[in-house]
Amino acid sequence: MWVRFNVLPRVMAWGRNVREDSKAELVRAQSARLLAAARMPTEAVLEQLGSSLAGLTQEAVQERQEQYGPNEVVHEQRQTVWQRLLDNARNPLVILLVVLAILSLATGDPKGAVMMGVMVVLGVVLRYFQEARADAAARELQAMVSTTATVIRDGRKQEIPLRELVPGDVVCLAAGDMVPADIRLLSTRDLFVNQAALTGESLPVEKVAEAEPEMAAGTQAEAGAAAQAEAHPGAQAGGPPLASPLEARNLAFMGTNVETGTATAVVLATGSQTYLGSLARSAVAPAVATSFDVGVNRFTWLMISLMAVMVPVVFLINGLTKGDWLQAFLFALAVAVGLTPEMLPMIVTVNLSKGALAMSRRKVIVKRLTAIQNFGAMDVLCTDKTGTITVGQVVLERHVDFRGRENEDVLDYAFLNSFYQTGLKSMLDVAVLAHKEVQDDLDVERRYQKVDEIPFDFVRRRMSVVVHEEGDGQLLICKGAVEELLSLCTTVLDDGAVLSLDEARRQEAQEQVHQLNEAGFRVLALGLKRLPAEERLYTVKDETDLTLVGFLAFLDPPKPTAAQAIQELAALGVQVKILTGDNDVVTQRICQQVGLGGEPGAGLLLGSQIEAMTDTQLAKQVDRVSIFAKLAPAHKERVIRVLQSRGHVVGFMGDGINDAPALRVADVGISVDSAVDIAKESSSIILLENSLLVLRDGVVEGRRVFGNILKYVKMAASSNFGNMLSVVGGSLFLPFLPMLPLQILTNNLLYDLSQTTIPTDGVDAEWLAVPRKWAVGEIRRFILVIGPISSIFDYATFAIMLFLFGAWHTPDLYHQQLFHTGWFVESLFTQTLIIHVIRTNKIPFLQSRASWPVTITSLAIIGVGVLLPVSPLAGVLGLVRLPGLYWPLLAAMLVSYVGLTQVVKSWFVRRFPGDDVGATSLSSR
Q1: What is the DSSP letter of 110?
Q2: d(CA 654, CA 649)
């Protein structure tokens, strides 16, 4: 019965009561329970989990889902309405407004307190709705791409989302699968698991279903390790004593993945109760910051450093010159808020979510929102050949002997090899198995029984199956890369006769392969070895003295759209590089057909050449070379790292097990929805269509999103900086505060509202033409050049209000309020209008127009600025009606301001072409 299980599931309830300071003890207890399960027979494990080989019933699944929750290590709880509102209230502007409201109420100004309360509600509620919509959009996108697991429930195999697994589920694993939870293996066939995520060891570990002994004997362990090393030279074996669950050969863990083989297993623990989950609770690793995060953080620190200088200066000047230190303090706080781009989190979130939704309509799904900026900044795209620039529908065109003659034996033996291999079947295997007539002609399942398998790996680049042929002993059939397999052959099959593979015949075979490669065929070699009938473990040592049977020639033609896509990516400043494990001749032939690689022999590096190079030597070649062929997974990862060291933002597109390391290290990991689980898990971008044209659309959208974020950064920072220069100057010579704290906050809030529609704005085609990345130094330069322009017109407004309208000679309360109103309106108008100047490098309104939402919002804010001084709120804000002469003077200043800013901006763009909108053009380096 389920309630009798006392090995692993009980840790679930027990773990919930563990105190925070006992997390290390929790890890030890979890390890002990896993080891206990490893030592139990499979039947006992199933019995105590209340399961069977037929899996759980649907009723049991529902009960356990309620008990254990989703199968997620870190389950993100959705915030309630009140939790989100509370989070939004934790904002400097909101906190300051609340403090000011309390002070106003305490000093007998209930109207002021009510006004500030309204501002708080407006700010918090606006951000709540924007972020709630963004989160909902992100959840919809995540639901479009989900990793699944194959389970047996009610006796039937079915695919379910990974998060729905529960303890007791029986799962089926194959090469390329993520291990979905902590599991106890029930049966295996040539199973090798990569545990690097938990142990740091990159070589795979062989797994078996047999129970671990209570105390592993040294001789047993040594024998097992030796057999494992022979069967798979890269595998790591555990040894006595069995001190950690990771050493158990019949356990596999969440966070690892299957390299080769198949298995069935029962789930022991899910989610936070897995071994990975217990480690996560005991030691939380900091998240790796993306280049986008780094850019935002650097900009934030730029604004903090600016505040650290300006705010104390404003406080001291007003305190010393006005004598009211409380008022000076509140004014300084308001200035600090004015310098803070407090809408940045919302602008970033909304921009990214809108960008992700737009990309989803182009069949590009974003798993991590911050990857969008890296997508737009990408200037080098590394990709495999198959399925990306080729159709990806491989056809077996020819099966020939070493002399190039069609030979049915080659097809027959190839079919047996592909039919009986248990690893992830490649497109080449699928092409072989498409010849179903062979299965009938050979009567495969009756005449040939599988004996053993030596799995494929990316070092040997081959795999073998051993079959027992009815009445004729055993056959080892080896299929793999030509160069590697030819080196193992000592004889050759020629019209049924076995001949010595002398140098002349070897040369003839290699010439046939070269001709096939030049014709665009991908070629595999096929070898054979007859063995006596015996029961034993076959290893790579048996892959020697083979007889060359012949060659398999596959055709995968270029996609009709590949050349166009490569040209369009090049026009966007993205250089495409091919990283493939395929033959160099056929790769170069295909690449030439789509316009990559130039002349034969130029711009090509082989894995063997990379192996012999230092990183310094490789760095001198990577920019020049467009085709990297015959690569192992480690070579792909190394090429990407070297490109990054050269200052490139690198994307990598892959869909296989061997692509996972490169996907993880790339700035942008890109995969397709049909990829193996480990590739999708390692990616931040998922394509619903395997096409470079789809990728091109995603790059453009990524740049548009980044461009709109930078618009806000540039507008807010330069405008706020100019305002603060005016505040400092006004504080030095004015006998009263240049603007009341509440007026500064109101002005700041209205300006922020005018920018909330920036995510809807378009971006100039010229800006999208090249990759962009954060450049805080250029943002600083832009602030210093553009920001002071607004101060010129602020001081002009000061002069008009002081000398034309009498505030200097009669500094009574009315004239103070008149001065405040004049600057409040002028500041609001200039800030709002400048949005349209700064948003483009072109002439605003004529050559480039903002989106309708941006235009309407700007007009609305200007309308508010006109009405506030004559509205019922004027008294609360300390505003008064402005003289009629003020408005034509304001209009003249606005025209002059827009014109001067446009002139200076145009000069700035010409003088600093790499500083375009606060982003560095990677192509300008």
Answers
A1: H
A2: 17
Average pLDDT, the chain: 80
Q: Which of 384, 401, 429, 655 is catalytic?
A: 384
Alpha-carbon separation of residue 749 from 397, 631, 789 (angstroms)? 69, 56, 22
Cβ atoms within 10 A of the Cβ of 94, count? 19
- Residue that has been written with the tokens 């109101």 in this structure: 746
Residues 581-617 as b/e (b if ≥16 CB within 10 A, e otherwise) read: bbbbbbbbbbbbbbbbbeeeeebbbbbebbeeeeeee
CA-based max dimension of the chain: 118
CA distance 383 to 662: 10
- pLDDT tens for each residue of 746-760: 887 788 788 888 888
Q: Specify whether 556 is catalytic.
A: no
Amino acid at 136: A
Summarised one tens digit per residue, pLDDT across range 823-835 is 999 999 998 888 8
Q: What is the DSSP letter of 162?
A: G
For residue 888, name the pLDDT band (cuts at 50, 70, 90).
very high
Beta-strand (E) ranges in 753-819? 772-774
The three-state DSSP-derived secondary structure of 628-661 is EECCCHHHHHHHHHHHHHCCCCEEEECCCHHHHH
pLDDT tens-place string over residues 420-460: 987 667 788 889 999 999 888 888 888 999 988 888 777 78
| Alpha helix ranges (H) inside 171-266 | 196-199, 218-231
For residues 540 and 232, what is the distance between their CA atoms, to the nearest angstrom? 7
Q: Are strands 546-555 and 521-531 parallel, antiparallel or unpaired?
A: antiparallel
Q: What is the rounded CA–CA span in Å between residue 728 and residue 725?
A: 5
Q: Rounded to whole angstroms, how far apart are CA atoms 761 and 855? A: 10
Is the pLDDT higher at 606 or at 386? 606
Token pair 């000011």: residue: 100
Hey, what are 852's tokens? 């309708």
